[in-house]
Amino acid sequence: MAPPRAIPKLDYASIDTSKWKNIPNPPGYVDSASKPSDQSIAKGAFASSQLALKQQRAWDLAMAPGKSLPMNAFMLYMSGGGVQIFSIGILAMLLINPIKAFANINTAFAPLEPTPAEGGGTGTLIPQKAVYVLCNLLTLALGLWKCSTLGLLPTGTADWLAFETRGLVRWHAAARLCVLTFLL
Fold this sequence. Notes:
Elements: H1 31-34, H2 43-67, H3 69-79, H4 85-103, H5 105-109, H6 126-150, H7 173-183
Helix pairs in contact: 2-6, 3-4, 3-6, 4-6
Transmembrane segments: 74-96
InterPro entries: TMEM85/Emc4 (IPR009445)
Protein name: ER membrane protein complex subunit 4
């Protein structure tokens, strides 16, 4: 068996680059990206990019409950129309999760709140929080609709019969008999 050949050492320093200087840069090539930076990024530009990133993450967090609405609707459809342990479990989770989200809204958005150095102040995430609450309200409405279709919400008059009072009886059977005998 022949001994393995030695791998040639590539020496790029000895290559003549003068013949390649006239070749144009490829499309999309940015010359400044290939050169080492001198860390001269302005603090304002960095802060604005951080603020934009936090705003984008806040919008993503706000839209997350809305993105899960189709999946929740499909899960409710697959749980069926009867009152069983599986459908009640799915329904309970669907109703509890928005309530937990309402209770923890400030905790959820706290890491995304811009600092005063980034140009943010109090109330900069109000639109995102409003969308977050709206999406959670839609999830809660979906759960309440399923409760209604299962018959778990007291929406009919028969559900409230225990709280209705009987009116006064104007005519008694004895009084009617007296009137009838008097007329005959």
